[in-house]
Amino acid sequence: MRTRRHIRPGRGVTWAALAVVAAMAAPAGAQPIAPGYTLCDYAIGFTNAVTMAWAPGGVLFVAHEDNGTPTRVYRIAQGGSPITFYGDTDLPDPDSIAFDASGIVSGVPGTVLVGGICSPVPEGCIWAVRPNQTTFTRFGPSTALGNTSMIRIDSTGRMVFTGNAGLVMVSRGLLPTTLFIVPGSPFGIGIDAADRIYTASSDGVIRLHSAAGVLINDSFASGFFGLALAVGPGGVWGTDLYGVEISSGGRLLRFNAATGEPTVLGTGFNASDIVFGPDGEMYVTTRTFPVSGASAVLRIRPCRANWHGRGCVDSQDFFDFVNDFFAGNADYNQVNGTNSQDFFDFVNDFFAGCP
Asked: Is the pTM of this model over 0.85?
């Protein structure tokens, strides 16, 4: 944890230095809002992003919703660019994606697994894109697979994915089998360190099953209408469950792992996936709203100095904080109401940036 230094003008930061914030440009346009977090663009300039999968070395693979035209998935290099198509074959509906690091599912370590419709609805396929980018159909066509919306890999290398008509299916390389069935259509899957499986379904309910498919909680949480779930990796995120919704007012939520109690972290997300990267940070795929093809991957991290909760830390955070401070509504350190120490603590964090 970063240790805060209490500073005052003349000790590390001068009043003159505060003037530089006026030169820091603020982002324009409608954006998701998450006060206390930064939502910085990690990768931009591509379209129809859906689900994501990290390779251990920091390369990000992103599924590419077809909208009726066969296409390939994206490979995003470490650091967020360049963004290139991946694979030697256009696929009819590459909606879901996972990285088969061990090769247990595909037979070749480092293969990218891609799911979606491959023939007349509702028959689906799971394709495999090998490290040399040759592509083949691993499973399907199959009515049971349907339009696979989410694929995750658990700690044992097993593939866990959504199938047709409420099916949640698994494979270790053999033909997929049904692990359990949920009401409605399952969309999101989140897997914890014990390989327990959270599912978000079209009925708005999040359920929890054991790794063996035994129902643990038939209503871990309700009222969630999103496509994506992820379990925190520890550290600042803890091991709670996180979810993000796809709509103009879509919420970013944290669900207490013990009780399922939700906390709204942000709003305005139009997001189709949420994952934690090798760096321990949260990443979310978003699109502009109303829905268009323009996409971005956001990197999200705790940062109290992002006072207005939009984009990265910028000059508007400073001005918004000052306005709230003089209105008596800026208890930054949550100690004894709004006072001068809140101002100095904010300024210290503002200039230090986020860890």
From this structure: yes
